[in-house]
Amino acid sequence: MQLSSHTALKSGLVEYIDRMEFEERTPKGGLDALVQQMSSFEAPSSSQSKDRELVSALASTSRILLGASEGAQDGAVASSSSSSSLDSQHISILTLTRLLKSSGVVIRLIESIGQLSVEVRKEVTNVFKALMRRNPEGFVEYVALEQAHVIDALWGGCGQGDGDAALDCGAMLRGLVRHACLAQVVLQRPSFWSVLDTHIHQEGFERCADAFTTLVEIIMGPHEALVAAFLNSNLDAFFTKYEGLLLSANYMTRRRSLKLLGELMLRKSNVGVMRRFIEKKHFLKVIMLLLRDKSSSIQFEAFHVFKLFVANPTKHADVEEVLMRNRDKLVSYLETFQEGTGDAQVAREKELLLKVLSALPQMNDPVPAPAPAPAPAVP
Hey, is 5 helix, strand or coil? Predict the structure, then answer.
């Protein structure tokens, strides 16, 4: 069956792709028509029929991109004919991806994400996630090197008034940052800061929670060295903005951000970040404020960060001064903290902190003078 006419393909595109056997057939003509159909779409569309055509074309695209991997997951032993079919599918995937890259259609649709209908947007998300998952024809590197501005469009979509658009953009960002080269680009672009400045503070639980999940995926993902380098280079800027989450009026934001902070500090790759963080008396004061939160869960998460400041054997003078000024209050607080919970680990940690704090002099106590330097040897 030889189809070369774009008109014939357009009239029965989905049906044709569904029955394609990919064997001994050059996919270029059909795939080119598929991409042309998507490229001809202009947002916003006032035509439901145009939307339906685009949804069908996008759905067919994602089926082609995922076809070979889904077949491989079935666990069937491939015969010679099925192996030939998989080879043909692979060629189709590579050809389709080249066309998607040369036309720029996926990138343009994402740039118009806020103007797309719900159905179209869902299919755009599926296509982009498929491209990120399989990375045919180096699509990941293509985005990182040539189309990095699409990351700004996705962050912009996370702030859309349409909650579903924000969730779709968040899903695409999370698929994107699984690749180290794209995670690095995300962290390097100014648009990254919008997640801390605005997106997590949005109204609406779903959008707020989704934005936070995206932040977690970025800074607690598999690219530990990359994140540690970013935090070391931007420590004051990052944690100054992060403070807005810690002191948020939203209970879930406060709790989740405190828990994330504790996990971030204890990650082995972030030991340098942790040491610099616990030298800052301002951050100690923020955590001490959260120890007084009316929620016992917030207090519990704050305790796990507070203990890092107290247990540090090489405290900065400013941090030690704050602890000395508040020694008695802190000792009194810790003596009854989480009392009766039966948590043996917390009990051990409390005992250690009480020992360290009790050994600190009060501010009105005389502070021992430093030992005099030894006299120089007489020649």
Answer: coil
Task: Output 258 or 66, whichever has higher pLDDT.
Answer: 258
Which tokens go with 366?
């005389």
Distance, CA of 277 to CA of 14 (rounded, Å)? 56
Q: How many beta carbons lie within 10 A of that of residue 293, not counting itself?
A: 17
Report yes or no: 297 and 255 within 8 Å, Cβ to Cβ: yes
CATH of the domain at 263: 1.25.10.10
> What are 257's two structure tokens?
């951000």
Nearest in space to 1 (alpha carbons), one of 19, 35, 60, 10: 19
The tokens of 250 are what?
């939203």
Tokens of 378: 């007489």
Backbone angles phi, psi at 205, to 5 degrees: -60, -45
DSSP state of 377: P
Please state, in angstroms and as integers, the Cα–Cα distance from residue 378 to each residue in 210, 233, 373, 374, following that order: 71, 48, 15, 12
pLDDT class of 12 with cuts at 50, 70, 90: very low
Structure token digits, residue 247:
């002191």
Measure the CA–CA gap between 227 and 189, rounded to whole angstroms.
Answer: 14
Peptide bond before residue 44 is cis, with ω within 30 degrees of 0 = yes
Instruction: Give ∠ CA 120-126-132 in degrees, rounded to 5.
Output: 135
**Do 267 and 312 fall into the same domain?**
yes
In a domain, 377, yes or no: no
Domain total for the chain?
Answer: 3
- pTM for this structure? 0.83
